[in-house]
Amino acid sequence: MTPYPLTWLYVPGDRPQVVAKALVAGADVVVIDLEDAVAPGRKEYARAATAELLSEPRPGVHVRVNAPDSPWAADDLKALTPLPGVSGLRLPKVTSAEEVAAVAESTGGLPLFALLETALGIERAFSIASAHPALRGISLGEADLRADLGVREDAGLDWSRSRVVVAARAAGLAPPPQSVHPDIRDLEGLAASCAHGRALGFLGRAAIHPRQLPVIERAFLPTDRELEEAETIVEAAVREEGAQALPCGRFVDAAIVAAARRTLTSARRT
Questions:
Q1: Cα separation of 257 and 10, whole Å?
Q2: pTM over 0.85
Q3: Does residue 91 come out as left (phi exceeding 0), alpha (psi in the -120 to 50 range) or beta?
Q4: Three-state SS for 227?
Q5: Count of H-run helices and E-run strands, the chain
Q6: Class of domain 7-220
Q7: Where in the sequence of the chain do the CATH 3.20.20.60 domains occur?
Q8: Three-state helix/strand/coil letters over 194-209
Q9: Environment class of residue 195 by beta-carbon count within 10 Å: exposed (0-12), middle (13-18) or buried (19+)?
Q10: Which of 21-25, 37-41, 228-232 has the lowest mean pLDDT?
């Protein structure tokens, strides 16, 4: 495994048979969704079905609960927090550090992940990212953010994407995964979008169908060329201390060596 998950597979919480298939689909993390994927009239059923499923340990399963200001949020947290099968909670539509802190205090240190889906959430990205030690990551909810900003072209979200990447790094969190690519048939478009996201600093991506998983993994794992270059840099660093120039002419300092080590670590998957 890489140090951080690369694939996060979302699945509706009110469809237990689909959840069962997702659990064996090969995603690093399965996210059972109680929020956008579940209609209001199905919320209680989805919560009960999820609680039953997660009453025993199941590594790598997160739950996206309903938004903090929704009528279902308190019941979600009460039902799910004590369950041994919950590895983390994803909090949608977070707009303040106080929301994160309040959830953290009521969930006893369970890992939390905040989704920023509004202009206000983006403006407060670092404050949210550093809100509480229980918060392990932040990421975007691009569908809601696009609607909130009135953005039509994909490039209009790049500033917000970079803002989240920088906020996560500044707060000492894992690099954020990209938001979902909604067209499950467009695998070429998914690959191109992943390449763009990787260039912006994202690591991994949320998915809504198992067929997207191998495309995402290929996009975010280092290429053979990247691995070869990283090995050369690390080997040179072992031989000599301090900044130096490689035979190819590239200047290497401690930051470059650290990045090379991360590249090699990210390739070690089992």
A1: 35
A2: yes
A3: beta
A4: helix
A5: 12, 9
A6: alpha beta
A7: 7-220
A8: HHHHHHHCCCCEEECC
A9: exposed
A10: 228-232
